[in-house]
Specification:
Helices cover 1% and strands 47% of the residues. With 426 residues, the protein is mostly beta strands. The protein has four domains: 13-125, Gamma-B Crystallin, domain 1 (Sandwich); 135-217, Immunoglobulin-like; 223-306, Immunoglobulins (Immunoglobulin-like); 310-423, Immunoglobulin-like (Sandwich). A hairpin with a 2-residue loop joins strand 13 and strand 14 (170-176). The two termini are 34 Å apart. InterPro entries: Ig-like_fold. Residues 1-21 are annotated as: Disordered.
């Protein structure tokens, strides 16, 4: 069923407007500015229909680092909830049925960069009772399997009827829950390489946040999988080509009939930087993993290189052991550079982190921007504060010292893989 916006009846969507009366009836409306966008520069409204879920505001064009939530109207007939982290995580702010908040700068939130709830919400539920996350039980997180029909199994809360399962952006199943368990067995082989699964539990019309699992489909022989840039993406001319490889010592890269070079495999990660950068335009790059006389089947990515106003690089500083956890802290300086104009709203991120990694607490407790993804499921995504401070100045730079906690020491951790920066709409 769809509504007048042509979307599923419970799917969030963005509108623009100023004034409390712009909140559509029967919805949980999140305004980007105080006083329901009246008198301020922002005019976006994220609309969440009754019993709807917005597990990550940026999925709906309401970016945490550009828009933010500064006032709300709850007209759903249910008590609703705002959360400071994606997927219904972090701190909670209940919003009673039939109430509104005109200025979230007046609501204190200890430990937030603003010390208030203003611009801190990243997910929301238009219903009073959150659905517990489903749990993956098989395969193990980070597992490498040669079973091309590997089943995926898990558990869910007793009142959950089904679990929705995605592999990357593709939904692969709507799985019934029986006696608190669910299972998915593919009809065809898993493609070789990395798989990022996400599962959502469904109770009646209400959905949970996403639970994540990463595993790898491999062979006894070399396997390669390009992870960045994404196929069809537009990237800066200085972008690296990164990925994973198994049973391999190096990865050889070519474009057309031209050999570009090779990248050493560190653990299971590799990264290739094109000397001098990519020429502007379309590129199709092929990678093969190599060990001795064995080569993998090729993997190919096509992307468009363009000169970007916002670019990024990273330098490893040092590492040391955290005596509290007996794990290892790695320090990096991520530097954002602006070209011909200031960049006030931005995202920066990286990935391919091993299981058990997370942003270190000393960083998360002091970072002045938005933490959208904390590395706990393999990826980190940071954002600028929505207020437009911590600007990357025209012709200048902004340095962010990032601390990552890893389960073990490894030379491969001295490099951040799939590093990117993105300038957001003003």
């Amino acid at each position: 069923m769809t509504d007048g916006n042509g979307k599923a009846a419970d799917e969030p969507y963005v509108i623009r407007g100023r004034g409390k009366d712009k909140a559509p009836p029967g919805t949980f409306a999140l305004f980007a500015d105080i006083n329901y966008n009246v008198g301020g520069p922002r005019d976006k409204i994220l609309v969440i229909p009754a019993k709807g879920t917005a597990n990550n505001f940026s999925d709906y064009g309401f970016d945490q680092s550009d828009d933010g939530v500064s006032s709300v109207v709850n007209d759903t007939g249910h008590d609703n909830i705002l959360f400071t982290r994606t997927n219904q995580g972090g701190s909670r702010l209940p919003v009673k049925a039939g109430t509104s908040i005109d200025d979230m700068t007046k609501l204190p939130l200890a430990g937030s960069p603003t010390s208030t709830w203003n611009d801190q919400a990243q997910s929301a539920l238009a219903f009073a009772e959150p659905v517990p996350l489903p749990v993956f039980t098989t395969p193990a997180a980070g597992a490498q399997t040669e079973n091309r029909r590997q089943s995926v199994q898990g558990t869910a809360a007793p009142d959950v009827q089904q679990v929705l399962l995605w592999d990357g952006a593709r939904q692969v199943g709507a799985l019934p829950v029986k006696d608190g368990t669910w299972e998915y067995t593919p009809d065809t082989d898993w493609p070789l390489g990395q798989h990022d699964l996400a599962a959502v539990a469904v109770r009646d019309d209400v959905t949970s946040g996403k639970a994540y699992l990463r595993f790898y489909a491999t062979l006894p022989s070399p396997v390669v999988d390009i992870r960045s840039p994404r196929n069809g993406a537009e990237a800066d001319t200085g972008v690296s080509v990164d990925g994973v490889a198994f049973n391999a010592d190096s990865v050889e890269l070519t474009e057309g009939g031209t050999k570009l070079g090779s990248a050493r495999v560190n653990g299971q990660n590799w990264s290739f930087v094109h000397e001098g950068g990519w020429s502007p335009g379309r590129h199709t790059v092929t990678a093969k993993a190599v060990r001795g006389g064995q080569e993998s089947a090729p993997d190919t990515v096509t992307f468009t290189a363009a000169k970007k106003n916002l670019t990024v690089d990273c330098a490893f500083n040092s590492s040391w052991q955290d005596w509290e956890t007996q794990k290892y802290i790695y320090s990096y300086d991520i530097t954002l550079y602006a070209g011909e104009s200031d960049v006030r709203h931005w995202n920066v991120g990286f990935g391919q982190l091993p299981v058990g990694s997370v942003l270190y607490k000393e960083f998360t407790n002091t970072f002045w921007g938005m933490i959208v993804e904390d590395g706990s499921h393999g990826d980190v995504l940071l954002g600028s504060p929505p207020e437009g401070v911590h600007v990357v100045p025209k012709g200048g730079k902004l340095v962010i010292r990032v601390l990552v906690l890893y389960p073990a020491q490894d030379d491969s951790h001295k490099h951040l893989y799939a590093l990117f920066a993105k300038s957001l709409s003003q």
